[in-house]
Design brief:
The chain has one domain (about 10-150). The chain contains five helices and six strands. α1 links the parallel β2 (about 20-25) and β3 (about 55-60). It has about 160 residues and is an alpha+beta fold. The protein has a six-stranded mixed sheet with strand order 5-4-3-2-1-6, with helices on both faces.
Length: about 160
């Protein structure tokens, strides 16, 4: 278990009231279809239902695509994601800083990048109107407001 995980999730984010709000699964696989992601998510939820706590938002991250499920804690089926997001505008600057390309990134490195990106959202002083257009889905889904002022789980 890594320092930011909650039982088995790669990353877990709590809102400002201390409630589990977002769970994140990070994979270095490229070209994962929404159907593949939905099957993978369902398998995790079915086989890990006792060790993987549920949250209102479930984000599956790949180097080239994000899949977000909203109301995830009530939908354990193989439903397709609520949002399919092009990861390039979000992750490219991180890949550039790290000197890697999307097809070269390891799962662990991608997890660190996603933690950095989420940390920026959690601690952002930006109003929703100032968010880059490529991340409008954060506003539309309610995730931006849900994460503002939140925190990652840390294990001492």
């Amino acid at each position: 278990m890594n320092a930011n995980s909650d039982y088995g999730w790669d990353l877990s984010v709590y809102n400002r009231n201390g409630q589990l709000t977002l769970v994140v699964e990070v994979k270095s696989k490229l070209n994962a279809s929404p159907e593949w992601a939905a099957r993978f998510r369902r398998n995790i939820l079915v086989h890990g239902s006792l060790t993987f706590p549920m949250a209102p938002y479930f984000l599956m991250v790949f180097p080239d695509r994000f899949y977000l499920w909203t109301d995830a804690n009530v939908r354990l089926d193989q439903s397709e994601p609520t949002y399919t997001i092009d990861a390039q505008p979000i992750l490219d600057r991180y890949f550039e800083q790290a000197g890697v390309k999307a097809d070269q990134i390891s799962g662990q490195s991608l997890e660190l990048i996603v933690a950095s990106w989420l940390g920026e959202i959690i601690h952002s002083e930006k109003s929703p109107e100032d968010i880059n257009e490529s991340q409008q889905w954060l506003i539309d889904s309610g995730l931006y407001a849900a994460l503002a002022g939140g925190k990652f789980l840390t294990i001492s």
